[in-house]
Amino acid sequence: MIRKFYLAAALTFFGVTLGFGVEPTFPDLKVLPWNGYKAATSLTFDDSDPSHLDVAVPELNQRKMKGTFYLIANRTDRKDDWRKLLTAGHELGNHTLDHKHTNELTPKDEEAQVVGAQNVLQKEFGVPVLTFAYPFTEISPGLTKWLTKTHLLARGGYGNGNYVNKPDVEPDWLNISARATMTDLKFEAYKSWIDEDVAGGGWLVWMIHGLEGTQWGWQPIQKKVFTQILDYLQKQDIWVGTFLEVGSYFRAQREFEKVVPQVNGKNKSWNWKVPNVFPAKVQIKVKLVSGQNDSKGFEIWQGKQKITPDEKGLFSISFDQKELSLKPAAVSNAGSVK
Question: Are both 95 and 133 inside the same structural domain?
């Protein structure tokens, strides 16, 4: 019995040490919310207001921040100026053809206000228009019917007071909550919004209308207050991204988290589906989570490319690839990308 025990122990030792027929114990993968930042925010601007071009855009560009501008397709002037926003990384979104109340729309009108407006904007500016903002924050089944087929995300109303979208809760992608700026609010109120967002580790979406100097914009805010908001955001560990940029990362994260990984011999693999109307080249950041397992000595591969971690040990994976594999380093092949 003693001899058999030592023989078994020796075989176990050599099997584990040399890798003879022993399957590895894999670590897990975790997506870092908000591209690795503590929180996220998106500055969205409504109604094709020229004050956005004259006041908001120069301040954003000066700070290398990006915003989302929701254009009313039939009420947008200065188109060359709006087109220039695209080269700076800003987003142009769909705010319908005519900005009408839902009770003014027939079923045919609902299609036109969603799909027709999208077509007009895409033809005019030459880029996909994948996000939408409801005029007056009014939502109807007819509008969402057409949005489901043509848009990835829609900014809705006020979320019943839940203004911060949490990374561990899947939202209604066609009714993302937002907070609206108001003329009478002081900077201290907006500061509290940002503090709440950072403390909650969520995504705060701003709904901004007129800015100082507007001729017709609703609830205009002073340029001084606007710049105070931007300056305070810069001091935070917060991702300031367009509505599409942050929203597509968030959605990719949630899709990845639904996957049940499969272990096959020396590989652990994830396979997922990309939602309809999804932008190309979205990357999400993941890290190896060891738990009780050793995360060292493993590599992440997508197809024939090994993904190299950054200086923080984080991996940027391509959501377009629809798959990735985790392998022990000893069985991997040459070739890597960052």
Answer: yes
Task: Kindly list the distances between the CA atom of residue 111 and the CA atoms of 9, 47, 77, 143, 333, in Å, as whole numbers in the listed order.
Answer: 71, 19, 23, 7, 51
Range of the domain at 286: 23-33+249-337
Q: CA nearest 331: which of 286, 299, 294, 289?
A: 299
For residue 329, the model assigns a pLDDT of 84
Shared domain check, 168 and 288: no
Task: Report whether pLDDT(14) > 90.
Answer: no
Per the domain annotation, does 216 fall within a domain? yes
Does some domain include residue 8? no
pLDDT exceeds 90 at position 131: yes
| 149 and 171, same domain (yes or no) | yes
DSSP 259-313: ---EEETTEEEEE--PPTT--TT-EEEEEEE-TTS--TTEEEEETTEEEPP-TTS
Model-level pTM?
0.90
> Is a pLDDT exceeding 50 seen at residue 322?
yes
Per-residue pLDDT tens over the stretch 133-180: 999 999 999 999 999 999 999 999 876 667 899 999 999 999 999 999
Residues in the chain: 338
Q: Long-range contacts of range 186-192, CB-CB < 8 Å, 24 or more positions apart? A: 186/225, 187/225, 187/228, 187/229, 187/232, 190/225, 190/228, 190/229, 190/232, 191/232
Classify 42 as helix, strand or coil: strand
- Among residues 215, 248, 281, which one ends one of the domains? 248
CA distances from 124 to 83, 92, 127 (A): 9, 11, 9
- The answer to the question of residue 136 being in a domain is yes
Q: Does residue 12 fall inside a structural domain?
A: no
- Chain segment 240-271, per-residue pLDDT in tens: 999 999 999 999 999 999 999 999 988 999 99
Q: Are residues 304 and 155 in the same domain?
A: no
> What's the structural domain count of the chain?
2
285, amino acid identity:
K
Q: Are residues 231 and 146 in the same domain?
A: yes
% of the chain with per-residue pLDDT over 90? 82
